[in-house]
Write a structure and sequence with these properties.
This protein has a two-stranded antiparallel sheet with strand order 1-2. Helix content is about 50%, strand content about 10%. It is mainly α. It is built from 6 helices and 2 strands; from the N terminus they run H-H-H-H-E-E-H-H. A hairpin with a 2-residue loop joins strand 1 and strand 2. The two termini are about 35 Å apart.
């Protein structure tokens, strides 16, 4: 990948006195963080339309993924809220909807009678697998113009950028 002496800009630097401001529509004039955010938004928009047939919001879909990643040790509602980075009340609403659809079930937490755990039902696991396939296909389509080596390099770089910020399930 091409690097720049300016960590904040991908290429071309910023506007200087007497020079026009960078064109925001020109990817080479955007900071790395802007490019990542624009890419994430575009991918999210594309994925949102793919989720519509499942009748789920992006938050509900993400919640299914969070719950699934806990595996045999179902998370508490507070764990789901923390992983989704939303208020516990909002997580309650998300889980309520998923429970009404038969995708998750609440159970008393065996270690704390005041808390409940959230687990995927068989239907929830099945839907999660279908969503994962759709998202993978959407990702392939979205990044399809990149070569195999470019996709591998991008994945490695993004993984390295995220590594120090990764929060494992609690």
């Amino acid at each position: 990948m091409q690097s720049s002496h300016h960590a904040g800009r991908v290429a071309g630097g910023g506007a200087q006195r007497g020079q026009p401001r960078p064109d925001a529509s020109d990817p080479t004039q955007q900071s790395l963080s802007q490019l990542v955010m624009h890419t994430a938004r575009a991918l999210r928009r594309a994925t949102r339309s793919e989720l519509e047939p499942f009748g789920l919001t992006p938050s509900q879909s993400r919640a299914l993924g969070v719950i699934e990643r806990y595996g045999a040790q179902p998370p508490r509602l507070s764990d789901v809220a923390a992983r989704l980075d939303i208020a516990p009340r909002s997580a309650t609403e998300v889980v309520d909807h998923l429970e009404q659809r038969g995708l998750v079930r609440r159970s008393p937490d065996p270690t704390d009678r005041r808390a409940v755990t959230i687990a995927l039902t068989d239907e929830g696991r099945s839907l999660r697998r279908r969503i994962a396939r759709v998202r993978a296909a959407q990702g392939d389509k979205f990044f399809g113009h990149l070569s195999e080596s470019q996709r591998a390099e991008l994945a490695a770089l993004l993984g390295a950028a995220l590594a120090p910020h990764h929060r494992p399930p609690s």
